[in-house]
């Protein structure tokens, strides 16, 4: 299994690039969106990859993020979605867009991809909706939250400030909570409603990981009735 390639782009074509890795050239098929984000020929590149193996075919697909690769693998499991259709969906929406559409049940967004009919789009949403939180967590875990700011200098004030009124302790910040809030923000939820939903999910399952928090928060944000 070839999971990642790092080398130099030799040439670009309409649907693939050739990457030279220490003298060996790999043909890597990519979505239109990924191809547009790659550097020019002669420059260095690194891609996550997935190898499709069939009786008469070995084909390598390349992705900029782990989330994009994971969506490709999941989309390929849906009836009526092959490699070409998967790349069309990812090219039209991107990994974040697919996560948003699937998590929110927006099959019309999937339908916007070239060659995807309404029945296939509905199958994608229905079959993969439970998988969206895990993929969202996968990408957000790669971007740890920023560390708190350092104290502002060592100067001593002329007079001690009056004691402030006690405030309720803020929710304990954890990587899972920060990643869940970031993922919900990418889905378009306002910070306040996302924070409230994540807090409820944390109350119900204090040891939940990022994917479980996203899943729990989404269930609380889903329209009732």
Low-confidence stretches: 143-162, 166-170
Nearest-angstrom radius of gyration?
A: 22 Å
**Roughly what fraction of the amino acids lie in strands?**
15-25%
Question: Quick check: average pLDDT?
Answer: 82
Helix content: 40-55%
Number of strands: 5
Classify the fold: give the CATH topology of the largest domain: DNA polymerase, domain 1
The CATH superfamily of the largest domain bears the name 5' to 3' exonuclease, C-terminal subdomain
Main sheet: strand order: 1-2-3-5-4
Distance from first to last alpha carbon: 46 Å
**Strand pairing plus helix content: what structural class?**
alpha+beta
Summarize the structure in words:
- With 225 residues, the chain is α+β, with helices and mostly antiparallel strands.
- It has three domains: 4-63, OB fold (Dihydrolipoamide Acetyltransferase, E2P) (Beta Barrel), CATH 2.40.50; 67-130, DNA polymerase, domain 1; 175-220, Ubiquitin-associated (UBA) domain (Helicase, Ruva Protein, domain 3, Orthogonal Bundle).
- It is 45% helix and 17% strand.
- Strands 1-2-3-5-4 form a five-stranded mixed barrel.
- β2 and β3 form a beta hairpin.
- α3 crosses α6, α6 (132-140) packs across α9 and α7 packs across α9.
- The chain starts with a strand and ends with a helix.
- The model is unreliable at 143-162 and 166-170 (pLDDT under 50).
- Residues 1-64 are annotated as: Domain I.
- Residues 141-162 have a biased composition (Low complexity).
- This is Holliday junction branch migration complex subunit RuvA.
- Belongs to the RuvA family.
- InterPro entries: DNA_helicase_Holl-junc_RuvA_I, Hlx-hairpin-Hlx_DNA-bd_motif, NA-bd_OB-fold, RuvA, RuvA_2-like, RuvA_C, RuvA_C_sf.
